[in-house]
Amino acid sequence: MKNLKNDLYLRALRGEKVERTPIWVMRQAGRYLPEYRATRKQAGDFLTLCKTPELACEVTMQPIDRFGLDAAILFSDILTIPDAMGLELVLEEGIGPVFNKPIRSQGDIDALGVPDAEQDLGYVMNAIRVIRGALDGRVPLIGFTGSPWTLASYMVEGSGSKEFRRIKGLMFESPESAHQLLQIVTDSVIQYLKAQVAAGAQSLMVFDTWGGMLSTQNYQTFSLAYMQQIVSAIKNDEACNGVPIVLFTKGGGQWLESMADTGCDGLGLDWTVDISSAKQRVGDRVVLQGNMDPVVMNTSQQQVADHALEVLHGYGQHQAQDKGHIFNLGHGIQPFAKPENMQALVETVQQQSGQFHE
Length: 358
Prior knowledge:
The chain is an alpha/beta fold. It has one domain: TIM Barrel (Alpha-Beta Barrel), CATH 3.20.20.210. Helix content is 47%, strand content 11%. The protein is built from 15 helices and 9 strands. Strands 1-4-5-6-7-8-9 form a 7-stranded parallel sheet. Helix 14 links the parallel strand 8 (287-292) and strand 9 (325-329). It is globular and about 60 Å long.
């Protein structure tokens, strides 16, 4: 493994003393960048972009080359696992991800198997290998997955949803079937993440996009319990060599303590969470990642700088007992964000955060 020229992000995730706050951004490779749009046009469609390692590498590198962020994140999609299970993912313009063969019966659940990460999802592992070569040790590479609950929600609903009637109906009416589905997905996620580490991912993130629409009890039972399995499996695997893992539940700010109990290294915060209170609650146990409102990225460079400083001040001075802070948005950067605002964000954090690390 090449020595990293910039290991700030990994040192921060390990809770080590750092000279400034590292920054990366969820969906940093995306439609707000003209060079991304050009590469996607070249690919023809989003899934071809994901499944062509050289193109996935190209778009992963674009924000690193342009902005000098402190970490790269694998360009892929959270729905690769269900697609590999045979649910046939398509991305429809104006609608988003849709499965041609969603889960509609107990028989559909019974028919599911755990995909082979190297054979069925080999394009993801090949992309990681190509990206690691292109990065050449500049910054670490983050691998990721959707959470079991989030993946199961898409698999049962067949697409995104506002009410989640089908997956919640399964959870309420047939909890055994819901648990059966979630366990198959969890086993798949564990193998997928282990394969990402073997291919070269140096950090992992679990995106629990839809966990926040559950009650506290159901969140603990149907989402967090399965993320706990994932954290334990990664932490107990010698081949993973202590690779750090971050959990992010959008809308899950009320459950930070329970999330920290999993033994994860970091917690992502959405923009609805007060970072100073989050620090008081769990900041000596896990690194906090976040949490500027993504919509600020469509305003002015001055607004971006002001809001970034607000987040940095919110976390405050890094004390010896704190695990630390990684700057990010509170969710993914949006297509209408201005590239010059991303530049302003990165420069503000990289130039101004040192004062909080004296």
